[in-house]
Design brief:
Layout: H1 4-16, H2 21-28, H3 32-40, E1 65-66, E2 73-74, H4 79-89
Antiparallel strand pairs: 1-2
Length: 90
């Protein structure tokens, strides 16, 4: 299941009408079928579920780039660096 923030981002990109569904799926990191279902309005609405801890976190998107923290080629923000920071705080 993808979060409501991702669905909102997909809807925003679809409304802009600048990118194809294939490009949107690559940018956001979901399948093209999911983007198509959101565009047609046939995907179930999961926005009514209760908020869970971590829902405000957006998963990495975009093209891979070099992480300034660890040097790996990742989609930003780097999840490995985020996990390391959380573990260091504990």
């Amino acid at each position: 299941m993808i979060g409501p923030a991702i669905v909102d981002e997909i809807n925003r990109l679809l409304d802009e009408k600048r990118l194809s569904q294939r490009r949107i799926s690559l940018r956001v990191g979901v399948s093209r079928g999911t983007v198509n279902a959101i565009a047609r309005g046939t995907r179930p609405d999961y926005g009514t579920r209760r908020k869970q801890p971590g829902d405000e976190f957006l998963p990495p998107t975009g093209l891979p780039e070099r992480c300034p923290g660890c040097g790996a080629m990742v989609r930003m923000p780097c999840l490995a660096c985020r996990v390391r920071a959380i573990k260091q705080r504990q």
